[in-house]
Write a structure and sequence with these properties.
By secondary structure, the protein is an alpha+beta fold. The chain contains 4 helices and 4 strands, in the order H-H-E-H-E-E-H-E. The strands form 2 sheets. Strands 1-4 form a two-stranded antiparallel sheet. A two-stranded antiparallel ribbon has the order 2-3. Bound molecules: iron/sulfur cluster (2 copies). One iron/sulfur cluster (SF4) binds next to helix 3. One iron/sulfur cluster binds next to helix 3.
Length: 109
């Protein structure tokens, strides 16, 4: 589920006009396309030796496994990521191994 769709789901359905106004505000606030997370493996503790995984448990269920462990290492599926940023906040590396970027600006690792 995209962040845009998720935010729209929070809007109380009190009146059609209020819903339309709130939806328009969501479009104003969010960039188009919406940001997604990329993983910089060279910064990630787990790819460099010590185990971490602090990010994985914070990926929300509605993102449907956008960030998960594969053979004990974190993997991001940009098609599922809603750009909530929870994993970025959890990552202890400096600079952070997880970064929100605009699709199209994605750098290959
Ligand atoms: S920003 Fe991180 S926590 Fe949020 S959906 Fe994307 S991968 Fe999951
Ligand atoms: S929180 Fe950061 S360092 Fe830890 S596994 Fe996730 S990306 Fe790697």
């Amino acid at each position: 589920m995209s962040r845009r769709a998720w935010l729209r789901g929070l809007v109380p359905r009190v009146a059609d006009t209020a819903l339309e106004a709130a939806s328009a505000r969501v479009d104003e606030v969010l960039p188009d396309p919406e940001p997604v997370v990329v993983l910089h493996r060279d910064r990630c503790f787990t790819f460099r030796g010590p185990e971490c995984g602090a990010c994985v448990g914070l990926c929300p269920p509605e993102a449907d496994g956008a960030l998960r462990l594969v053979t004990c290492k974190p993997v991001v599926d940009a098609d599922l990521c809603n750009g909530c940023g929870a994993c970025v906040e959890a990552c202890p590396t400096i600079p952070t191994a997880l970064e929100l970027v605009i699709p199209g600006a994605l750098a290959e690792e």
